[in-house]
Design goal:
Strand content: under 5%
Structural class: mainly alpha
Number of domains: 1
Length: 213
Amino acid sequence: MAKKKWYGMGICLALLGLLAIVGPSRAADPESPDWPCIQRKIPEISAGMMWAGPAVQEQDRSWRRDESLAALVGEFAERRLPIEAAKLRIDDFAAGLGADKAQKLTLLFTGLLQSINAVRGEIIEGIERYTRRQRVLADKVRSMTVELGALRAKTAASDDERAAARKLEEELVWQTRIFDEREQSLTYVCESPVLLEQRLFALARQIMSHLEE
């Protein structure tokens, strides 16, 4: 019985240690306590971060009224389209433009900026919701760990209490596993906004290359 008791206490201490290391207090930016990523939070990409061409009116949505531009923006913003294929489509589009080339290409970038910012914004909100759910789960696991520790500490536990401890221990291990797997997946989730930034930068450079011709 003593061996089982101390085994249970070891689990409690191990789980508390895990939560201390990977718990939701990871946020490095005090202004964004729900942001868990190593990458700095950039809520929105500005044109100046990506574009060195003609002036961009970041709220200009006139590109939506041009069917060809709207179609291209939708196509290029879609992450399933390989970046090299998107660059070739930009080349084809630019080759068919006339005197309004600079205006059309600038509007193409404007549409991409708006569309990718919208997608990034949704992802960032999702990451922060994810963090809040992790915080709730961490609190639950801590509470269960304390409860299990109290049960294991009893020197004269009843059969019902021992059964409750075993059941709680199983649930605790399961909930901690879920917590840990979610923490590990954050590495991949946090890369999504960065990948979108890189995609926009690559497309912007391709568009600008045709403004220099």
